[in-house]
Amino acid sequence: MARTFISHSHKDTYFVALLRHVLDYHGVAAWCSSHDLVGGQDFSDEIQRALNKADSLLIVVSRNSIGSEWVSREATAFRTAHPAARIVPILLDDSDSQRVFDKLAQLHAVDFFTDMDLGFQRLLEVFGRQFLVKAEHRGGSSRRVHDNRRGSDRRQAIRVQRLRRGLWKEFANKTAIEKQAPLDLTWTQCFRAVRALLPEAKRYTFIKEGVPVPADHALKTAATEIWHDLQDQGQLPAVHVVEAVAERLEHNFDPTPIDRRKKQRRADEPRRGEAETASRTR
């Protein structure tokens, strides 16, 4: 599988986290130090190993990366290991890419600061992908309640309502944003919303085609799709956006609340040997 290396300043980690998720969602394997380095590893060796395995390099260009020794070293090491391989500058602001790495300004860059949505489209075209090809979602408003659901569908509707209420409560507690307050549909706000909603999402298991999906991946996927669908509206009431994310989670996955009481009961139960010993001493 093709693998790309993301070179960036640690101050741009907020964007790189979203970038890596979008690439992963579209089947593009990506490596970046902020996500893939593990404590105790020799980071210089691991970075060099990842650069050697990569067949393309993404360089995040920003005011933060100008003068970054690590970004310059990574770009130089990649160019040395792969002289003919693709290098793609990603522009987060209007900084001069030439100041990040020599001759970078001569390469075709992908502009993210003018229009991030279009930036993702252009970047994924480099890898032969289409950005968030829309699946056929349920008709009607994301807030519509289907009163004719019966049996398992009705129970599923109850779970969705619980998910909506839980996500909104978590979002309101973390952000202090009121329900009808306008929420900017920028990608930065998307990342902040995911961070605020994640603790509640982790109270659920998410299943797709019989396979468990990590809560953070499920949430990032749903939020990214919603932001893509609604971004042209500029702003929406915060509660509408959070509820739309909840419904998209239900549409894409099968969310089930984790019964923490059962987990606690199992943790409190004595082990078999302990129970036998206790019975003998009575």
Q: Which tags fit this structure?
A:
Rossmann fold, 2 domains, alpha/beta, 10 strands, 282 residues, 14% strand
Please describe what this structure looks like:
This protein has 282 residues and is α/β, with parallel strands linked by helices. It folds into two domains: 3-126, Toll/interleukin-1 receptor homology (TIR) domain (Rossmann fold, 3-Layer(aba) Sandwich); 151-260. 50% of the residues lie in helices and 14% in strands. The protein contains eleven helices and ten strands. It has helices at residues 13-25, 33-36, 43-53, 69-81, 116-126, 151-175, 187-201, 215-230, 238-252, 260-268, 272-281, and strands at residues 3-7, 29-31, 56-61, 86-91, 110-111, 182-184, 204-208, 211-213, 235-237, 254-257. The strands form three sheets. Strands 2-1-3-4-5 form a five-stranded parallel β-sheet, with helices on both faces. A three-stranded antiparallel β-sheet has the order 8-7-10. Strand 3, helix 4 (69-81) and strand 4 form a beta-alpha-beta unit. The longest helix is centred in the middle third of the chain and has 25 residues, at 151-175. The protein is elongated. The protein starts with a strand and ends with a helix.
- Main sheet record: 5 strands, parallel
Overall pLDDT score:
81
Q: Output the number of helix runs.
A: 11
Q: Shape, please?
A: elongated
- Low-confidence segments, given as residue ranges, are 134-151
Care to count the β-strands?
Answer: 10
Helical fraction:
40-55%
- The largest sheet has its strands arranged as 2-1-3-4-5
Short description:
With 282 residues, this protein is of the alpha/beta class.
